Each structure stands twice: as structure tokens, then as C-alpha cells.
Amino acid sequence: MASKPPVAVYDACVLYPFHLRNVLIQCAFDGLVEARWTDEIHDEWIRNLAANTPTLPIERVIATRNRMKAVLPDADVTDYHHLIPELRLPDPDDRHVLAAAIAGKAAYIVTWNLKDFPAKDLAEYGVASQSPDDFLIDLHAAFPEALISSVKRARRNLRKTMPPVDTFIDGLQQSGLKTFPALLRQNIDGLI
Q: What is the pLDDT of residue 155?
């Protein structure tokens, strides 16, 4: 890779959807991004997923989190709590995410909740918020072949239920992505 991968905090809302989480983790595992998160971020997506999917065993979700932490041990940010009281965001409950970005030396917060992370509040810390759609499009612009290969591996991670490529892309679209699935459809041969 010619350029250095971006450092990004994955907000809980982008770790919640299964297919999106799978792709984002694979991109980090493949070195296209240096992912960052905290136990607080993990607790949030796990709590919401458990509340919204009561038939999903919590042990399975905890095992997923543990695998994520095992394959990306450098992603954990721990020394950030002292920064929280001084930070200002529209929703004070989101300050822990910005604090993790600052402590983790992240340039991006990847989130669906862009309104909760206004540019004016992040700029002084050298952080920007970006939707996962835009983030993945930018990763493709920086590392086109590597990103397609990473998405291909993310699909193959689903060995037991490996969906056809179109169904996999549909799953990403159902996660809220709009532009990225269209890009994948243009590169569908690379995903097979």
C-alpha cells in the first residue's frame, strides 16, 4: 500500500448491523484502516442488538465482540475517560466517542449519527465524522483493489451461510449503505 491507512473510531451504530460490521472489521484486519473502539462502544452496540433481537443469544454477540478484540488488539482505546468532561457535543452521551478518537489519535469517527458530531466541534481535535458509506467509498479511492479484495474476504467469512454476491451486497444496502453497494455492483467480478 502506497499511503498510510486512516485511523478511525467505529461508533456503536456502525458495529450494530451484521454485514456492515463484518466489512469494517475485515478492512481493519487487512490494514486498510486502523480501527479504534472502546468497551463502552462495544457495550452500546451489544445492548442495542440484544434489546432489538431477543432471540439472538447474548453469548453469541459477546463471542463476536471477543473475536473482534482478538483479531484487532490495537483497536482498544482505554485511557480516554479523563477527556470527556471538557468535550462539548450536541448529545453529551456521545462525548466518550470523541474522547476515544482523541486518545486513539483517530482522524475519523465513522458513524451514521453525523448530526451528533458537528465539524465545528471536532475540528479543533483534528477529527472529522464520516458516514460508513462515504468512509468505504474513500477507502476504495485510496486502495481500490485492496478494498474489493477485503470485501470479498468479508463475504467469505460467512462460510456456513455464504450468500450469493448479490444477496451480500443487498445485505450491505439494508444496513443503510447507498453509494457503496452501487460501487460493489460495478466491481462484482472481483467479489466472486
A: 94
pLDDT of residue 1: 52
Long-range contacts of 54-61 (CB under 8 A, 24+ apart): none
* CA separation, residue 152 to residues 161, 170, 185 (Å): 14, 14, 12
H or E element in which residue 129 lies? strand 128-130
Measure the CA angle with vertex 46, ends 43 and 47; round to 5°.
80
Those residues whose C-beta lies under 8 Å from the C-beta of residue 77, and which sit 6 or more positions away, are: 9, 36, 37, 38, 100, 103, 104
Give Cα 40 distance to the centre of its chain: 15
C-alpha cell at 1: 500500500
All three cell numbers of 65, joined, read 465482540
| Edge-to-edge order in the sheet of strand 108-110 | 34-36, 7-10, 108-110, 128-130
First to last CA, the chain: 23
How many angstroms separate the CA atoms of 7 and 4, rounded? 9
- 38 backbone dihedrals φ, ψ, rounded to 5°: -135, 165
Q: How far is CA 13 from the centre of its chain?
A: 8
pLDDT, position 162 = 81
